[in-house]
């Protein structure tokens, strides 16, 4: 039993019959196509957090968000009167 090479195959060609070289056989190595690479499906994009902004502390209180702490959505230094990291106290 013979097995084919993994990445190439051999093609044989003979010279035309009327040629004085008709008894000579040449071999050419022909590369085989590589199998397609399997890739994982792309992950679903994570939805971005909605941008929250309050014009005033009255708006933040009306939305039920007050007090706002530094790092909370909607916190901004303009709403933090004393600069302690808590706005709309």
What this model shows, in words?
Helices cover 7% and strands 20% of the residues. Strands 1-2 form a two-stranded antiparallel sheet. Strands 3-4 form a two-stranded antiparallel sheet. The model has no long low-confidence stretch (mean pLDDT 78).
SSE layout and pairing:
Elements: E1 8-14, E2 25-31, H1 57-62, E3 68-69, E4 86-87
Order of helices and strands: EEHEE
- Which sequence of strands runs across the widest sheet? 1-2
Helix content: under 10%
Rg, please?
38 Å
Total strands: the figure is 4
Overall pLDDT, averaged? 78
Give a concise summary.
This protein has one helix at 57-62; strands spanning 8-14, 25-31, 68-69, 86-87. It has 89 residues and is mainly beta. The mean pLDDT is 78.
Essential attributes:
89 residues; mainly beta; two-stranded antiparallel sheet; 1 helix; rod-shaped
């Amino acid at each position: 039993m013979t097995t084919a090479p993994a990445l190439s195959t051999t093609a044989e060609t003979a010279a035309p019959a009327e040629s004085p070289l008709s008894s000579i056989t040449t071999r050419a190595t022909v590369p085989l196509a590589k199998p397609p690479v399997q890739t994982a499906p792309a992950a679903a994009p994570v939805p971005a957090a909605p941008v929250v902004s309050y014009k005033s502390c009255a708006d933040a209180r009306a939305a039920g968000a007050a007090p706002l702490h530094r790092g909370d959505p909607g916190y901004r230094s303009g709403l933090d009167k004393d600069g302690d990291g808590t706005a709309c106290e």
